UniProtKB/TrEMBL annotation:
CDD domains xref list: TM_PBP2
Gene3D superfamilies: MetI-like
Stored InterPro entries: MetI-like (IPR000515), MetI-like_sf (IPR035906)
Keywords attached to this entry: Cell membrane, Membrane, Transmembrane, Transmembrane helix, Transport
Record protein name field: Carbohydrate ABC transporter permease
Amino acid sequence: MTPSLRVKLLGGGLLAVGAVITLFPYYWLAVMATNTTSDIFTTPPKLTFGSHLFDNLAEVFASIDFFGSLLNTVIVAVATTVLVLFFDSLAAFTFAKYRFPGRNVLFGILLATFVVPTQLAAIPQFSIMATLGWVGDLKALIIPAAANAFGIFWMRQYCASALPDELLEAARMDGCGFFRTYWNVALPVLRPALAFLGIFTFISAWNDYLWPLIIMVDSRNLTLQVALSQLNGVYGTDYSLVMAGTLLAILPLLVVFLIGSRHFIKNIAAGAVKG
């Protein structure tokens, strides 16, 4: 066996082990969702699928407004993702390619917000939402998340390295204004970074629990994560129901990740070929 073959086999083995470790929690989630709570706590643990999936799902649908909260979560996640992609990329493009008074100071303040825990903003943010009359409304979940420091920083770094100044200068010579240059020249180049940011933002908005729990006082506007928490009983928890609801909740995330990651890899490969 040649040394190069040993390296390939070792690399393949490590990747296989990593894949098993990564995928096992999803397999275990599916196993628990198809069994009863008593089956989950058997010793040794049951690692095979059961026959109670549809019974558990029916109980989930009877216990919470699953589809209503699912619709609320889709609205919040999609609207948040669209707004973040637009505002963060626009701000990043400005920071990366335009010089204006106070640019470095503003970007430094933006970076400083990374060290501030998000929990510290809950009280003043709630006060602002109460003043606007948005408590219990989906706008209170969408508007505060319409832009974030991480997205601006990520897009700014990518824009600075991937978008050549000569391309922008050529656009200006052709008569393009600021917004047309951003929309027609910058955005096509930034697609790989936008794909990553879109996946990251959608998953974060979908899984958000603390802020929706605080602000959504109206039970009709609950998001999916808050609704699923209601499956926890006062004196006990039926884990099979929780796992069945969680299994349904992560399916849209898997679809978004698969579609978004393919788009991300496709654009990176296209950029590499063009380069």
